Amino acid sequence: MSATGTFSAQFTPKIITVLREGYRFADLRADAIAGLTVAIVALPLSMAIAIASGVGPERGLYTTIVGGFLVSALGGSRFQIGGPAGAFIVLVAACVMKSGLDGLILATFLSGFLLMAAGLLRLGTYVRFIPYPVTVGFTAGIAVIIFSSQIKDLFGLTLTGGEPAEIIAKVQALWAAKGTVTPAACALALGVVAVIQGLKRVRPHWPGMLLAVIAASVIAAVLALPVATIGSKFGELPRVPPAPALPAMDMAKIWAALPFALSFTLLGAIESLLSAVVADGMSGRQHRSNAELVAQGAANIGSALFGGFCVTGTIARTATNVRAGSRGPVSGMLHALFVLAFMLVAAPLAGFIPLAALAGVLAVVAWNMAEKEEAWQLLRSSRADALVLLVTFGLVVFRDLTEGIVVGFALGGLVFISRMSEAAEVEGETPFATDDGERVICRLRGPWFFGAAARLGSVLDRIADRPREFVLDLTDVPMIDSSGVRSFLLLARKMARRGGSLTVVGARPQVAEALRHHGLKARFAADLAALGAPER
């Protein structure tokens, strides 16, 4: 087995790699600055995502502290930042609504073991094969769902009977409550959005989200604005995380939590590996996908033990970490410790944060998540890509996240098969006479798999009707699958029934091996010159 395929090469955490390379005080200083920068971004986001998910803001902090630390300490990416992610809001809220907080913690716990199993089975490589239109459609759908979940707090609406989870029913309920708009909430939310976007343009290195939330909190407190705050809805935040404890479980609870655990696993694997790929592109490094999945699994188990919920790699915070000058995983570990320090010192201050301010933060997150330019390019590039994107987007928004990914992936696979089958072709026929009778050379190009075999098999049959010897030139066939092999077996039997023969020339070693392994009765030659046939 090659070095790249050994267990050590695939599963050694990046923190060990960084330490082996030599870790100096200058690196620690750079990582501390990067970690503090990311913690400033993560602090309001963690609480906002937790509230939008239907749990208390402290759960988001537990998730960031425990999960974020373990993702960096054990992960296969130098720069990955773990924590609660906006993409999970819908799934987490649905799990809480159906199974309660205990069910959410159990589903997170089970998901951790599933992610670790996926990593140890080396499935991380295959997760990255999800087609690009699927990821763009999925991300855009998540952005729409996040924004729709924040409309209530953005406008300070009062809903009777709770807020529906299904988006059409949600919009109808929100419209019915339009008469309860709170002007102060609208003003605060709009101000937060304006400050974040304004600082992004004039002072891009400033922590716009945190500054906007602090400003909104001060204004709301000083002017005694009639808006809901974290304190009025959730009470005072605890100063320390709880002691670790196993989630309550029995077989009935496990079976109830398992579907959500599977969804958390699938989405977490996709989100974390996409984030790691983004970090690779920004830094020029290469992550270890299977080690990353194992670390994500350990982080979810740890988060559940401390009362948190599902953890994944977060693209925005990971990108912030790289841009802030991180040297390695230590910055991610320090970011978690900085958030812990906030809980220990300043947790009571979080009670003054208006929910409208956090809704403004998530509105900006949703806008940034929607890859608008990429989606527009895909919609214009081809009908097939546009179809995959739109179907994925529609299913995510109106049906289910997992269903959107699975159906989108299946459609993307069909598009790929169609395009690959079109790349395969039969390049005419070249007859030439020999002492034994007429031969015909048929040149094949492209991968010869089930899609190509089904489309071009009839062409080969028609050509094989005439000559005594049929020569297949496979020089330009890079691969063949069992369906492709079977088409040649049927061709050889047809030639044998007519008293003719089949000759294969130019087959690459792996192609020739596949043909011989399936028992193809044919003559094999290295090239056309060996047959006395004219060269191309």
TrEMBL record:
Localization per record: Membrane
GO biological process assignments: transmembrane transport
Name listed for the protein in its UniProt record: SulP family inorganic anion transporter
Record-linked InterPro entries: SLC26A/SulP_dom (IPR011547), SLC26A/SulP_fam (IPR001902), STAS_dom (IPR002645), STAS_dom_sf (IPR036513)
One Pfam family recorded for the sequence: Sulfate_transp
Lipid bilayer topology: Multi-pass membrane protein
One Gene Ontology cellular component: membrane
STAS domain sequence ranges: 440-536
Keyword terms: Membrane, Transmembrane, Transmembrane helix
Signal peptide annotation: none
Transmembrane regions: 32-53, 60-81, 87-117, 129-151, 171-196, 208-234, 254-279, 337-367, 387-417
SUPFAM superfamilies reported in the protein's UniProt record: SpoIIaa-like
